[in-house]
Amino acid sequence: xxxxxxxxxxxxxxxxxxxxxxAEDGGKKVLVLERREHVGGNAYDGPGEGGIVIHFYGPHxxxxxxxxxxDYLSRFTKWRDYQHxxxxxxxxxxxxxxxxxxxxxxxxxxxxxxxxxxxxxGDKLIAEYGAERKVTILELRQNPDPxxxxxxxxxxxxxxxxxxxxxxxxxxxxxxxxxxxxxxxFLSRDDRYFQDAYQGMPLEGYTPLFERMLDHPNIxxxxxxxxxxxxxxxxxxxxxxxxxxxxxxIYSGQADxxxxxxxxxxxxxxxxxxxxxxxxxxxxxxEEYFYQTHGTxxxxxxxxxxxxxxxxxxxxxxxxxxTAIMKEFSRAYTGxxxxxxxxxxxxxxxNALYGKYAALAGAYPNLYLLGRLAEYKYYNxxxxxxxxxELADSLL
Length: 396
Ligand code: FAD
Ligand code: UDP
What we know:
The chain is of the alpha+beta class and about 400 residues long. It is built from 12 helices and 22 strands. Helix 1 (about 15-25) runs parallel beside helix 12 and helix 3 (about 105-115) packs antiparallel against helix 4.
């Protein structure tokens, strides 16, 4: 068998970024093992039905304030300027529906309460917290002022509680406060979902970005290969195909699975995606056909799914009379065949269980847990790419 200096498990952002840096800047021979038939991890995209590009594991929008991450990834892709905008779609109480920006902002206030009253409430919030401030829903709900408290209850009811129940099976109070803090009330007219300095979509998609990143003479990628069938962990030594492997092993799969669920499984949420195609001959000939006004529409009060994403808004792909959308349904991960653990359920109890697995990993001096699964964290793409660059720094 060929000699490798580094073993990487998983070809998502965690694995691909470390592999490239160690191969290119460290001159290391890197073997990447990926269980799926493709690279890219959950960011994998490509043409679906009718040739319309979709994100197979949920909508991915790149955004970061980390220039280092942006510059690094920019070596492997050009970017399409895209500023993600999301609206909540809710019943208007009169038999119709209304939409307003999420994060809930000054425009949302005016849509919900009318121009005059909305403006007055907005001014009051600004006097209390400051213009352009982001206030989490849990913080807003602490405010003793009866008017602000009533407003907080409105936002809680119309934006947070039902969506959070669908997504997590728990209320906003029960889940990790950092989760709802990702989508604060924003005392601004800025209706973008993210305010990061760098935002966009890889011009030709995420998959080509990964293919270029992994295309290096020192990198060998084996897809369709479950690393756990070839790895053996015993008494402080990692073995690959029965031979001791003493180079760095960077593992981006589940920590519990790596140790055969010794302490029981780590809880996760999984998602069912329902892809649908709309348009076709019936709408042909006119303007380009879109299903909805925004890249993502959140159904924050009703419906069984959390949100609908329409990919053409994100990718900018021109397909005149057809469009592809995706509905996301969240439920508990059971570990059944084919299910994917998407979201760690972060709470003190689960973190403690994770800590036991991390401690086991700590007994292997050349084993590094890296990534959303391996670290049981809620990383965005840029955050895990930065962690990967930093791990590579420390290994070089
Ligand atoms: P992954 O992408 O999960 O990659 C891990 C890889 O390891 C997988 O390919 C897996 O098959 C492989 N693997 C696991 N076990 C083994 C094994 N035993 N052998 C071989 N291979 C194995 N982030 C953003 O910045 N913006 C967004 O808009 C955004 N949207 C998201 C939407 C959804 C629905 C979800 C779930 C996540 C979203 N994210 C977003 C987060 C983003 O997906 C993660 O930050 C990123 O995928 C983390 O990369 P990773 O390498 O840690 O994990
Ligand atoms: N959230 C909500 N209503 C919304 C949007 C978000 O209640 O309209 C809450 C919900 O708990 C969600 C969390 O905020 O899980 C984080 O939302 P984000 O859009 O960042 O989730 P992701 O895109 O990572 O699934």
